[in-house]
Amino acid sequence: MSIAFFDSGIGGLTVLREAARMLPDEDFIFFADTLHVPYGPKSKQQVTEYVCEAAERILGEKVKALVIACNTATSVAATELRRVYEVPVIGMEPAVKPAVEMNGAGGRRVLVLATELTLSQAKYMELVSRVDDHGIVDSLPMPELVEYCERLNFDPVELGEYFRRKFEPFDLNAYGTIVLGCTHYPYYAPLLESMLPSHIRVIDGSAGTVRRLSTVLNERGITGGGSGKVRFMNSANDAAYNEKLERAWAVLHSPTE
Fold first, then answer.
1. Between 181 and which of 2, 24, 114, 225 could a Cys-Cys bridge form, CB atoms 3.0 to 4.6 Å apart?
2. Known catalytic membership, residue 149
3. Binding site, residues?
4. Looking at the domain 3-92+206-252, which fold is it?
5. Is 70 a catalytic residue?
């Protein structure tokens, strides 16, 4: 049986990449909700409905675990999926806790980049409240970045200008860590690292999510049995989009990434 990874579009492939590295003896299905991408600008109710519809279809594939490789979808729908289904459901959250631990009391600040919907949810606010004892976490919505990514636009000049505009209100010298709180954003990590001050670390939640997945698989005794095979699916049954997923997968494995 395979492990399913789900996102609104190509972003969740960044999490799948980490799983393929850490769990080479598993097979994977990647499902993109192309009918409704992007999730960030939509309402909580809409996204919950979309995620539940997608989960019903994905679990028809007889998977042994479902990873919601999307911070927005996790924040609004993970609890509901766990209530309805017995299969393990692994969600994501922005890597705020490790970022705060990296900076510590008296250190530099943390800037979390995410979608508007993720940043507006009680789940995110509770996370920050729980770990940010020194008030060092700031948030910045970057909704356009998902759309750039879905168009496979990785042009360093255009994206560099976009990032400069977004960061203009911030004194980047005050920040020690930038958290990529959307799974689309790690596609741009190399560009960010090249243009940000050298002291800033850029992190995301992929590794932590896959470690949690591995723990759950081991606890249930359902590890292995595969060879790293990846199968792509999407909610529109669009062969052209599956080809786009394959191109995006290749981008993540290119020498520059």
1. 114
2. no
3. 7-8, 39-40, 71-72, 183-184
4. Rossmann fold (3.40.50)
5. yes
